[in-house]
Amino acid sequence: MLDDCAPVELLPYGDLAAIVTRVPRALFEGDVLQARLKDAAWLESAVRWHQSVVEAFHRERGVLPAKLGCVYAHSADLVEALAPVHDALRSQLDRLAGCDEWGVRLYADRSIVERRVTKEDPRMHQLQQELAGARPGRAYLLRRKLADLIGSTTDQWLSEVAQAGYDRLLCCSVDGQIGPRPNGVPVAVGDAEVLRADFLVSRANVDRLVDEIHRFIEGQEGLRCEYSGPWPPYSFARLGGEDSR
Q: Which domain does 53 fall in, by range?
């Protein structure tokens, strides 16, 4: 349990219940809260505790995870916030019932892909032939042209393979979404992340998802895939496509 917090309890409203804990109000508002949020040790403890509560309930029943830091002054304020969205929350819970979130990351060794597209693209062959007999000045321009073509063709190939992978996994999922890839953060030597996606998957379909992941990268030299789960449906707990508390 997080320091300064009471045990977790359920606050019923209609046929739903909010998962809450009572906290000293003075410690969770204003400058005091801002100072706590700058305390890395306290913040890590709070995040881990919040996640453990969400995961514990998710194992037993449907849950819509709220973001850390949703604080209400009184129970009545929370009930008032739930009232206008009760039916939408109920609909979301029905949609997420029996499902978990799975994260999928697709990586490519760019040097291997570049060699592949160079070997398979006839335009590359033509430029290489011209380069072989070119004078120094023209050879420089041809090398630049070849490098640009290899780069753009590799980018296009990676984009297409990432979309194909996403579409294939979406077919065995309830829902999915593509997230932004990190910029400038190497995963491993030569690796580039080409797909970061999350999928909402029925528990009855998990084996199919994993099988499709392995099938997709089978025989694809230079590609590797990592996946993680099951997680509570953090990425899919929303109302009408909007982020909501």
A: 9-96
**Does residue 3 sit within a domain?**
no
Distance separating alpha carbons of residues 191 and 111, to the nearest angstrom = 9
- First CA to last CA across the chain, in angstroms? 22
Percentage helix, strand, coil for the chain under 3-state DSSP, each rounded to 5: 55, 20, 25
- The CATH number that applies at residue 148 is 3.30.70
Distances (CA, A) of 9 to 19, 25, 75: 6, 17, 12
Distance CA 55, CA 206 (A): 18
The predicted model scores a pTM of 0.79
Q: Which residue matches tokens 């321009």?
A: 141
pLDDT by residue (tens digit) across 147-180? 888 888 888 889 999 999 999 999 999 999 998 8
Of 43, 72, 96, the last residue of a domain is 96
